[in-house]
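Open question from group meeting: does this chain pack into something compact, or does most of it stay loose? Before anyone orders reagents, we agreed to write out a predicted structure and look at it together. Recording both the input and the output here so the notebook holds the full record.
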Amino acid sequence: MKKVTVHSIASVSAGQGAPKKNEFSEQGIPFIRAGSLEDLLAGKSEADFELVSEETAKKRKLKLYPKGSILFAKSGVSATKGRIYVLQNPAYVVSHLAILIPNDKIHGEYLRLVLNQFPPSRLIKDPAYPAISLAEIKKYKIPVPEELDDQKRIAHLLGKVEGLIARRKQHLQQLDELLKSVFLEMFGDPVRNEKGWETNKLGEIALIERGRFSPRPRNDPKYYNGAHPFIQTGDISRSNGRLKNYTQTLNDLGIKVSKEFKVGTIVIAIVGATIGETAILEIPTYAPDSVIGITPKTQDMGEESIFIEHILRFWKPVLRAKAPEAARANINIETLRPLPIIRPSHDDIVKFSITSTKLEDIKTLYKQSLAELENLYGALSQKAFKDELDLSRIPLVIKEQDEQQEDESGVKAEEMTDEKAKAVELSTPDDLADLANVNKRQSLIENWLASYLEQLDGKAFNIGQFMQLAQLKLDELIEDEPPELGVDEYDWIKERVFQLLENGQMKQAYDDAKNRVQLSINGQQE
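Structure tokens returned:
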């Protein structure tokens, strides 16, 4: 695998200056800033950002960048973050962002992945004044396979693992949302207390103590790297409610100048960016003075800790707002002691604790799976970009007519004969011009998919067969250069099938005779 300059595989440019606040409109084309990348990568829609009208774009001489353009920050603090984003729709772009438009020598998705692995942020010379020139970006060398098909194979493989990682993260978020909804259903919002529960002050039902770590300087290595866990506020924010993994430890000398909290203690970060984050200790732990420990006084400490910790999640925005204005915002013990804690029945607290524990057990399994997937992605990435993967074993998914595709059940597509094609009728749109429009064509394909599923009549369903049938219909309707269905359509159809499975319109079953998973529509075997 050779290293090539970015300039040889993509056009390199920067965006333009942002319009004034009063020049943005309620309709138009999205304007993407450097600060937008974090939210975009987290799943926020481009349409949710500021919009620019055609009139303002002409006035400000803004350039419209196409779908598939690759963006990353080239100046400011954002340039140090290594965020790489691909435009999902045409957009205007701020001058702080670099824009790469891939040419025909590079697969766009491969370029995104290799830039994630070798971020342009490594070109920054002075972290105090982070900036990357366009000239440096153009000369930046990255590993690229000579064969475009090999680029696509690498992108396909890593993209699959990325998708699994994203889905696992989504599952974890859904479990958190489920637990929150269970709490609200049982107890209502504990801050507003609309159900009128009796309350006790937090200081009445729990011991509240500040952590301690007194040596100067605090970074003296003689106190660290021992056998005793030592909380960092970042550990709390990453714990997702249950704390048992730590980035720092103390030795026997270090624990003499620190504060120990026992299992079941609720810890809350009280300074910095993680202020208000909470977790329950699952092993005895030492804590610095940037952490407060809350230990319930009841004998049923485990159940009470789970309940109170969840209440504190609702109080977090209030506590942050109450933090004194200072160089570092903070929460103090006197802020926590009078906090009203709702007191439902003991049985209800136990029920919620059991539900929470069961969901936490599931989350633990998901977190382990996520860690394994992330490790797999890291290992595959290193091998892929070092040219150490046997790419011949990776299927190349491009177009159905080029190869047999394999659907999510593992069933390979059969050759679509004229007899099979005639057996299924697909509708003809009233206006053939609609086929040239991507969005309208997608809507038509969705109608074709619904019609195809209705007409299966017990025959085996296969994404590849449907795509071939749809391509034959497009070839019939458009004689001159009909659009070709490829990876984007294949992935979109898969997502539609997943939706049908999730909402119960389609079901899965295992065919022992054929040793494969089969799908069913409305009780009929596919």
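Observations to bring back to the group:
The two ends are 44 Å apart (CA to CA).
The chain has 15 helices and 23 strands.
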